[in-house]
Amino acid sequence: MARILIMDDDPNIHQILSMYLERDGHTVLQALNGTAGLHLEGEADLLIIDWMMPEVSGLQVIEILRGQGCVKPMLLLTARGDEGDKLQGLDAGADDYVVKPFSPREVTARVRALLRRAGIKEEIILGALMVKPQSHQVWLDGQEVQLSKLEFDLLSAFLSTPGMVWTRDRLLGRVWGSDFPEMDRVVDVHVKNLRKKLHDDPENPTFIETVRGVGYRLREQE
């Protein structure tokens, strides 16, 4: 199942779409404007974006992300339904287009189609590390590594955005959930345990690098 970011300035849209998407087993992230959405984009697998938003419009969000090389599926929501507007949205980089008012079932069906089209990686290879997301299995130099669920979720967060810095607060929200108390020490302990299992030296890391005063990131392999 995917992590889906909804960018829309209407709380009612968030409420109804979140309910249907969560029924499908997805995790839902929410942003009430384009600026907030751009900050959260790195944590999502698929984006649902409203065209008319304050600060940064949905169309601008899509253009910015595509300009940065983002290839994630993007579904555009809008009340503008004529052919010219639809073509403008698709030309900007949207993968699909739904006109308001819409059926939540139609949106969830389109999300499923976009996810199928994007495909889910059966395995991720990073140097000597191989990860199978579907089965939660990890191998290092051909030897299977036993990770706890939290350790695997932490590794998955890093793998989703190589080179991007994760603050401790963002890792808490991604791995432990928004209701978890803010405790930087929890993140540090689990990163330490993950590094130990991956034989990753903090002083000369192969995989997880400390960004002092900020957080952690996965090193991009040469």
TrEMBL record:
Q: Spell out which residues are annotated as carrying 4-aspartylphosphate.
A: 50
Q: Name one GO biological process term.
A: regulation of DNA-templated transcription
Q: A Gene Ontology MF term for this entry? A: transcription cis-regulatory region binding
Q: Which residues form the Response regulatory domain?
A: 3-115
Where are the annotated coiled coils located? none
Give the record's GO CC terms.
Answer: cytosol; protein-DNA complex
SUPFAM superfamilies assigned to the protein according to its UniProt record, in alphabetical order: C-terminal effector domain of the bipartite response regulators, CheY-like
DNA-binding stretch(es), residue numbering of this chain: 121-220
Q: Where does the OmpR/PhoB-type domain lie?
A: 121-220
* This protein's record includes keyword GTP-binding: no
SMART domains xrefs: REC (SM00448), Trans_reg_C (SM00862)
Question: What keywords sit in the KW lines?
Answer: DNA-binding, Phosphoprotein, Transcription, Transcription regulation, Two-component regulatory system
Cross-referenced Pfam families: Response_reg, Trans_reg_C
| Superkingdom of the source species | Bacteria
User: Does Phosphoprotein appear among the keywords?
Assistant: yes
Q: What is this protein called?
A: DNA-binding response regulator
Q: Which organism is it from?
A: Deinococcus cellulosilyticus (strain DSM 18568 / NBRC 106333 / KACC 11606 / 5516J-15)
Source lineage: Bacteria, Thermotogati, Deinococcota, Deinococci, Deinococcales
